[in-house]
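Milestone 3.1: sequence recovery, worked example.
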């Protein structure tokens, strides 16, 4: 089987695409017979994992940014309370572990809330990729059972 692409790095540039398009149905059948179905399904599965990693990575980056902002606010508050002592300084001093726990846990729901639109968008993309995989599997199963005669 000869590869259909001139350069694997540039999608959409078919080596003999125009020739196949001019042939009509026989050209389409030839394209389907030369298609590497296993690699296509593996690429689509990899795409699903890439989408999931993208969503999780976005949430983690937002979490880190929010935690950084909260740490800056925490240190500004400490400096402020040192110059202007108050009752709140006693709370911060008495419960340092609780304060640290809050600074690690509070950014999680905030990061997820901020990422809500990304989560929705990429969830829809995951659904589209799943639908594409199911459709291609149906096409492949139908196509491999057919016998073509000239």
């Amino acid at each position: 089987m000869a590869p259909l692409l001139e350069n694997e790095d540039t999608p959409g540039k078919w080596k003999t695409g125009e020739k196949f398009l001019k042939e009509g149905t026989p050209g389409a059948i030839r394209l389907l017979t030369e298609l590497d179905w296993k690699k296509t399904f593996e690429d689509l599965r990899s795409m699903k994992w890439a989408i999931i990693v993208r969503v999780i990575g976005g949430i983690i980056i937002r979490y880190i940014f929010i935690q950084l902002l909260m740490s800056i606010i925490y240190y500004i508050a400490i400096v402020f309370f040192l110059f202007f002592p108050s009752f709140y300084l006693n709370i911060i001093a008495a419960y340092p572990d609780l304060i640290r726990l809050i600074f690690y846990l509070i950014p999680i729901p905030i990061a997820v809330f901020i990422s809500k639109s990304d989560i929705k968008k990429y969830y829809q993309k995951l659904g589209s990729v799943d639908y594409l995989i199911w459709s291609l599997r149906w096409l492949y199963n139908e196509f491999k059972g057919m016998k073509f005669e000239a």
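The chain has one domain: 37-144. Helices lie at 17-23, 25-34, 37-83, 87-94, 96-105, 107-114, 116-144.
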